[in-house]
């Protein structure tokens, strides 16, 4: 099968399209014919070594496709069923293996592309807005990088819960997209007001961290859920005393730790898509052999919405 391999730690040039042995499903696993794979900053972190990895390995963890074979003991799924997943190493390939515990049935009315585009980032937006800081009606909310994949979905979910969204973007088309997603106000990164927000959702990291902290009202919550610009500098906890502030660094794994929780969140996200309540923007489609280009565009923040690799 064709697969994109991380040959060593480094820049996008270490991604190489190769012919690799086809995998097989073990007990409790599914073998899936991949239709589309998601391109995420997690893939970049694994390629560069921010997340510990041991090259060579097939890149990617998110995708959607059709069940090709069942491992021993699997009864929850059947061959030919459409599934999506957020965490199966080796998703930049024509076939991959995923644990049944990670597989999500794609409901009728939701395409494989939409399911893939929504699963990791949609689940992230869900736990951020519903659990890490459960937005309440009237809350002033700041969403950084609001034209990105998570940002557009998060903006919509905050509005569903009655929050008022101030969105940061670099302007132009990105500002228009954030506004179309429901943002009440769209500003530049250097225009963030101080002392105003109940919660700041920050997936940018180093470049925005100081402004994010200053933007909080007393007892406000800074949710640092990513580091697209790099990790912030270490900060003494005493700085939070300036407003009795809260700082948290959540991860999706801890908010989908059980099968029930994963299914509940995915059910909401897929349900909203099917009902037309949640719009998923696919910002770019790349063939498998252009995985390098896709990651380059993601790192350079030239993208909006979700980037996908089309496999078949």
For the record, what CATH class of the largest domain applies? Answer: Alpha Beta
Structural class estimated from helices and strands? alpha/beta
Order of helices and strands: EEEHEEEEEHEHEHEEHEEHHEHE
CATH homologous superfamily placement of the largest domain = Medium-chain alcohol dehydrogenases, catalytic domain
Number of separate structural domains: 2
Tell me how many strands there are. Answer: 16
List unreliable stretches of 5+ residues: none
Q: In the CATH hierarchy, what is the architecture of the largest domain at level 2?
A: Alpha-Beta Complex
Can you describe what's shown?
- With 312 residues, this protein is an alpha/beta fold.
- It folds into two domains: 2-118 and 256-310, Medium-chain alcohol dehydrogenases, catalytic domain (Quinone Oxidoreductase, Chain A, domain 1), CATH 3.90.180.10; 136-249, Rossmann fold (3-Layer(aba) Sandwich), CATH 3.40.50.
- Helix content is 27%, strand content 27%.
- The chain has eight helices and 16 strands.
- It has helices at 41-48, 112-132, 149-160, 173-180, 209-215, 252-255, 259-274, 291-299; strands at 2-6, 15-19, 29-39, 57-58, 63-70, 82-85, 95-99, 104-105, 140-143, 164-168, 185-187, 197-202, 216-224, 246-248, 282-287, 306-310.
- Strands 3, 5, 6, 7, 8, 15 and 16 form a seven-stranded mixed sheet that branches. The protein has a six-stranded parallel sheet with strand order 11-10-9-12-13-14. Strands 2-1-4 form a three-stranded antiparallel sheet, with no helix packed on it.
- A hairpin with an 8-residue loop joins strand 1 and strand 2 (15-19).
- Helix 2 crosses helix 3.
- The protein starts with a strand and ends with a strand.
- The model has no long low-confidence stretch (mean pLDDT 96).
